[in-house]
Amino acid sequence: MGLRFAAVIAACPRPAGRLSSGMVPLPDRSLDMPLSTAQSLGWNLARTMMTIIVLVETSAGYSVMPLDEFDGDPACIVCEYDPFNR
């Protein structure tokens, strides 16, 4: 299985060390989050980054990412969090 990457936005419980690119590989358990946690994270990221965040459902669970980085099937999008449109 290939590596998945996500932007590091907040401190994690286990520091990954110094990152030059700001990207860190995610462990497999990262996508195994309940829908309510993914929804909360999506809205929080949208407000923090002030960009549209999408919540997508994959075969491994739920994930959130900026809309401009999503290049998958639009049918996988569960919700969009737009901080400018309340």
How would you characterize the overall build of this protein?
It is globular and about 30 Å long. β3 and β4 form a beta hairpin. Helices cover 17% and strands 27% of the residues. The protein has one domain. The protein is of the alpha+beta class. It starts with a strand and ends in a 5-residue tail after the last strand. It has 1 helix and 5 strands; from the N terminus they run ββαβββ. A 3-stranded antiparallel β-sheet has the order 4-3-5, with helices on one face. A two-stranded antiparallel sheet has the order 1-2.
Number of domains: 1
Which sequence of SSEs, written as H and E, runs from N to C?
EEHEEE
How far apart are the termini? 38 Å
Structural class by helix and strand composition: alpha+beta
Largest sheet: 3 strands, antiparallel
- Give the overall average pLDDT: 76
Tell me the fraction of residues in β-strands, as a range.
25-35%
Low-confidence parts, pLDDT < 50 over ≥5 residues?
8-12
- If strands are numbered along the chain, what order do they take across the biggest sheet? 4-3-5
Shape by Cα distribution: globular
Output the radius of gyration. Answer: 13 Å
Give me the count of strands.
Answer: 5
- Percent helix, as a range, is 10-25%
- In DSSP terms (H or I, runs of 4 or more residues), the helix count works out at 1
